[in-house]
Design a protein that fits this description.
The structure is a homodimer of 584-residue chains. Chain A is built from 17 helices and 23 strands. With 584 residues, chain A is of the alpha+beta class. Chain A has 4 domains: 93 residues, Beta Barrel (OB fold (Dihydrolipoamide Acetyltransferase, E2P)), CATH 2.40.50; 133 residues, 2-Layer Sandwich (BirA Bifunctional Protein, domain 2); 122 residues, Gyrase A, domain 2 (2-Layer Sandwich), CATH 3.30.1360.30; 105 residues, BirA Bifunctional Protein, domain 2 (2-Layer Sandwich). In chain A, the strands form 5 sheets. Chain A has an 8-stranded mixed β-sheet with strand order 6-9-10-22-21-20-17-11, with helices on both faces. The first copy, chain A, is globular, with a radius of gyration of 30 Å. At the A-B interface, β1, α3, α4, β6 and β7 of A face β1, α3, α4, β6 and β7 of B. β23 of chain A pairs antiparallel with β23 of chain B, so a sheet runs across the interface. Chains A, B: InterPro entries: Aa-tRNA-synt_II, aa-tRNA-synth_II, aa-tRNA-synth_II/BPL/LPL, Asp-tRNA-ligase_1, Asp-tRNA-ligase_1_N, Asp/Asn-tRNA-synth_IIb, AspRS_core, GAD-like_sf. Chains A, B: Homodimer.
Amino acid sequence: MFRTHTNGELTLQNLDETVTLSGWVQTIRDKGFMIWVDLRDRYGITQLVFDEDRSSKELLEQAKKLGREFVIQVTGKVIERTSKNPKIPTGEIEILVERLNLLNASELPPFTIEDETDGGEELRMKYRYLDIRRNPVKDKLVFRHKMAQKVRNYLSDKGFIEVETPVLIKSTPEGARDFVVPSRMNPGQFYALPQSPQTFKQLLMVGGMDRYFQIVKCFRDEDLRADRQPEFTQIDCEMAFVEQEDVLEIFEGMTASLLKEISGKDFGKFPRMTFNEAMKKYGNDKPDIRFGMEFVELNGLVKGKDFKIFDDAELVVGINVEGCAEYTRKQIDALIDWVKRPQIGASGMVWIKYQHDGVVTSSVNKFYSEEDLRIVAETFSAKPGDLMFIMSGDANKVRTQLSALRMELGNQLGLRKGDEFAPLWVVDFPLLEWDEETGRYHAMHHPFTSPKPEDITLLDTEPGKARANAYDLVLNGNEIGGGSVRIFNKDLQSKMFGLLGFTKEEAEAQFGFLMNAFKYGAPPHAGLAFGFDRLVAILDGNEVIRDYIAFPKNNSGRDVMIDAPSPIANAQLDELYLKVETKE
Amino acid sequence: MFRTHTNGELTLQNLDETVTLSGWVQTIRDKGFMIWVDLRDRYGITQLVFDEDRSSKELLEQAKKLGREFVIQVTGKVIERTSKNPKIPTGEIEILVERLNLLNASELPPFTIEDETDGGEELRMKYRYLDIRRNPVKDKLVFRHKMAQKVRNYLSDKGFIEVETPVLIKSTPEGARDFVVPSRMNPGQFYALPQSPQTFKQLLMVGGMDRYFQIVKCFRDEDLRADRQPEFTQIDCEMAFVEQEDVLEIFEGMTASLLKEISGKDFGKFPRMTFNEAMKKYGNDKPDIRFGMEFVELNGLVKGKDFKIFDDAELVVGINVEGCAEYTRKQIDALIDWVKRPQIGASGMVWIKYQHDGVVTSSVNKFYSEEDLRIVAETFSAKPGDLMFIMSGDANKVRTQLSALRMELGNQLGLRKGDEFAPLWVVDFPLLEWDEETGRYHAMHHPFTSPKPEDITLLDTEPGKARANAYDLVLNGNEIGGGSVRIFNKDLQSKMFGLLGFTKEEAEAQFGFLMNAFKYGAPPHAGLAFGFDRLVAILDGNEVIRDYIAFPKNNSGRDVMIDAPSPIANAQLDELYLKVETKE
């Protein structure tokens, strides 16, 4: 037996017991006549002691040869420590080693296996298996597991069935971001890896499996933004014989149970906000409502005072930053520079200070009297000591810019606390988006999303105004899940395809397969999917999803640890009837 | 709200309640003045009634227009049935419908949605979403879900962490059966889909994650036998700081908990058998021990009686088939023909009957006296009424042939009962297999499998005799899981690669990556993997794994429902720098 206990469990309760432990050498302190070794495993650290008086000379010699990350097994007696370490559960005891068995030596690791390591990200990714030994990485993987278990048990208890849908599916003509997989048995033919199990889950609904879920890998071959992965994990769900309300209730319950597990708090009913309200109040369809700074629109108030920038703007809108009136000119300029960066793209920003002494001043004193400014400040519900920022321009653009500033200030002011949670449903999304470039409508969610019943007539008159039975679950400023009530009526579905500019043939080629299934008694159904990597990160008070993936890929889609992707042998290509033609 | 109850839950307890139900029309019986409709959903069937006296004329008209598989919603009152159906939970009540809402019509389905359907397999696969509506299919998917949940909870409770390993990995030079995936971002380069997460789980052990599991899709692009799938699911497990005994204990416990769930029985300690014993007693390394018919070797007894076939044979071995002495000549000939089929390849078979009247007779009376035969019968422990079959020839071949006969007789005699379970560990597998064709050793399990410590010296002298620390879990004649203690010592691993005929360079190219990880303190570790599709099928008393996969592929690796794989657009190939070159 390699161990009687783990390195996280021995306490004074075990005094005088003879135990066997195994693990990695974390640190060695060699005082010559005494040697202390910290032994580490997944569960914790236990201090080992070897000493001249109580240990054999051979044992001491053996211990002196140990190095960092050596794998050892020791047997010895649990004794009380003279200098205790209250920071760890095993801090009151140590093991007086009687037998030491070197299981495996280790070369010096390329970075220190400590909570704070000296290894840079690239190096740690290359040696990910060593990085996983560190608590901050290991704990994230354990946390992910616990969340997955919790989700599975919650949904199973509610009668959901986890069904595995296929990974080798069909590539569709518009599946431009599909990974494809050549088939040896079917020369010249390809499978595709699923971007989501959307079609299959809808087929399961047609099949009567009325509560489906799956924690499932999905794939997208696209240029990767910093925090995207070519393979990612979804909690994918679908229900039949339900309305939007039923879906929200189930998944609100699921999310609340996760939040309760983490925070101990009951979250009650989650607030809801329409898409329009979210855009108006926060300039964003996934607002972080852990803090205020709601948008205040000022068109009626500030126009007509000869300040041309405001007069010409479609929208003048601002936020009140509480308690920041004492920001220096330098601090304010830094923020103005921040919004002028190309990523944000604002041309500038007006500020108003409501000073502690009651004076209201601004960067546009030339155009506005103190009385004008005071009225504006009142509109913001500002108090003495507050600082207001106002931006102007094209409504959509300025909202996006001000939203970015709001989030930046939230970060700077520490208002976005990792251990605080503010879930929010955003509902009533537009059904369609007009794409200037292609000159046609796109489905905001996907082509199977149902319009709100009361908006169906708008499809004939003003389709752009129709709202969808679509919903997003937002947590701390991140979309963690989204879904919709689906169309299950063939005629309405045909109309949708028409609106989206598909010819009958195109619709048939891309979706005929699902449409065919709809002929045989499709039930009303609705669903949603959570981005599991992101959900886990946010629940753990973090936003970097890569940290929560055991073996992530880098921004070029490469696994630098195993060096994938890589060229394959010509023999293998021949078997697949393929030829690589890279142009130099 | 689409329903207040499901179609499986209403009983006399709900009498007089007004309820709303939704589902599919299973059957319609139209008596003119009265119409009964069976309404079906995932949970059961509820009878609806419309009648001239109690329903409006419009409602009756509406009901008359319904067809099979129409999706409807009804509201009505729970009333007591006059003729009850004790076979279903809702059989004592029916719903007197007050309101009928047609949710979706259905074309006539291509086969009947009944437990016994008129649809052939191909048709049902094409319309799999309709097949899933049938109880026998649906129940299997629900059963699979329950088993997965049980496994996950069992292992989580034991401290195992489910870690998702990547699906896009590296193709290895010998990965001849790898599916490969071209990368758009890395022109001319390919990922491979994992045949198993073997490397990653060993890296997780190096990473200190000492109890790992994953229910995970794996992929193999190979010619498909009847019951193989290009994508299949494993319960993949690995543990560190353990010996073989620890692994067997955990997974015996897991399997016993599944068996208990299904059968209500406690299975205690699973029996164990060495590979050699299994081969000797059953001619098979995965014996079905639900029934006896153990092999009896007869070399010492039957040779030297001038029966040349036995005299020339390396092995003469037989089985005793209890209570079959009254088999007719025709029945016996049919079995002899069966073993002579090319798939089995025996040249013939000797039989001995121990008649009820005490006489012992045989097909080789010319060579053996009744006294000779009686001694043979005694060696078989045969009783009056038993029938013995004896085969002879090359030891390995004859064991395989006799094993096939034993299984066939087990099936014919109803000894292989689906609801009886006989788990068995087979241990002490040979480490290496000699491959006549390539003239070198192959790893019987895989190259990372550890020899038994006491057999390590054999590697230098008689490697073929070395036994491995490898083990299979067998259930009802099927290997449901297998694994091994891994080598974690670099030098021993190098020696293994040498024995397997790898040059240093080849070993480096294929396994260098894991070997590199082994430099940094690899702990002792061991693991195993269950074939989840097969496990579920066998636990459900079935052996056809395809039935337990929601959307399976056929023997050509095709999904006939979605018609995948299929050709892809040239534009897509161009983006991947690929050209298809199929020779006509």
